[in-house]
Amino acid sequence: MSQAPDPRETTADALRAAAETMHAVRDHCVWTQQITHRDLVPYLVEESAELIDAVEEGSRADLREELGDLLWQVLFHAEIASRDPDDPFDIDDVAAGLTDKMVRRHPHVFAGETAETPAEVLVHWNAAKALEKHERTSVLDGVSERMPSLALAHKLLSKAAQVGLEPAATARLQSPDEDAGAARGLGGQMQSRGSEVAEPASESELGDALLELVATARAQGWDAERALRERLRALRDSIRSAEQGQ
């Protein structure tokens, strides 16, 4: 098989060189030629997780590298799609669609509308999105069940609020002198005991308790998924210290 030309020598555009590199790899690498969209899913999950690590605890060099690895996944999927016999599209089509969407969703940047606050920006964004997704019949349409459970809980709580279902944040936010029986959580299982919360007595009640905590995070503007990740990092460090006898 003939050698592919080095894309860095044929174009000064770094993004175009990356796309041409992917194209050449697909043409000349026997492993890559066998890969499908579905085959790539585990790598996409892994690279996304590594990018999160780089954002939250990595160096600038780590961040740059992991962004590149995630970009490679996008280029890989687009290259596979470009060879579909029935409905092909390539990275240029992906980029064009993205640009069109972002211009539509930022009329305060590109179309003379006004947005002086983040809340006003969100109004424009949601209005544009509603026009694009007019065929959707539920606020749950487009919400992936494959999201991590805590992140999904946060997302579903925001969707519940959109339809007027706004659960109490959590029993922990109740007044300490509030009657314990009056402070019921999302599943009706958790009760306030001053500043404490009743310990779950079953797996079902545990689910209620976890959802209560996510509701607390949402009410406070916290990220429940990140909070748990950071706590797990501390636990990981403690485990390593224990292993080393420290």
Automatic annotation (TrEMBL):
<dbReference type="InterPro" id="IPR011551">
    <property type="entry name" value="NTP_PyrPHydrolase_MazG"/>
</dbReference>
<protein>
    <submittedName>
        <fullName>MazG family protein</fullName>
    </submittedName>
</protein>
<dbReference type="Pfam" id="PF03819">
    <property type="entry name" value="MazG"/>
</dbReference>
<feature type="domain" description="NTP pyrophosphohydrolase MazG-like">
    <location>
        <begin position="36"/>
        <end position="110"/>
    </location>
</feature>
<feature type="region of interest" description="Disordered">
    <location>
        <begin position="171"/>
        <end position="205"/>
    </location>
</feature>
<dbReference type="InterPro" id="IPR048015">
    <property type="entry name" value="NTP-PPase_MazG-like_N"/>
</dbReference>
<dbReference type="InterPro" id="IPR004518">
    <property type="entry name" value="MazG-like_dom"/>
</dbReference>
